[in-house]
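REVIEWER CHECKLIST
Item 1: Sequence provided? yes
Item 2: Single chain? yes
Item 3: Sequence as submitted:
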Amino acid sequence: MAIEETPRQKKIGTALQQEMANMLQQAIRDQGVANLVLSVTKVTVTVDLSLARIYLSIFPKNNADNYLEGIKGNAFQIKHDMAQRMKNQLRRMPEFSFYLDDSLDYIEAIDDALNRPEDPINNPEILAKRKKI
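Item 4: Structure as written out by the authors:
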């Protein structure tokens, strides 16, 4: 049985998502990086509001792991900057953990499998297994 998010968790997650997206996109513009699209697709906050899982979608995919490692390496600075931005909204900033959002890749793989001549319903080994986080 899955525990549903409380309204407070949802509000904090939405506020963090909007501010994080603005902050990271501004940092990309300030650095002058071209041909990089980064979006914050989802933020989930634990019940005690101590940890926030931030899911990022990074395009192009070939350098996504490098950018994610750079973001993880600067997590302390990102938390500090977010605390400065949201000091009037949150008393305590949760710890951040960053993940790549692979849902679009997963959907694309399913679509490709359905368009093949083999039947993925009768032969489920055709589909790639999705990693659980």
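Item 5: Key structural point noted by reviewer: The two ends are 17 Å apart (CA to CA).
Item 6: Recommendation: ____
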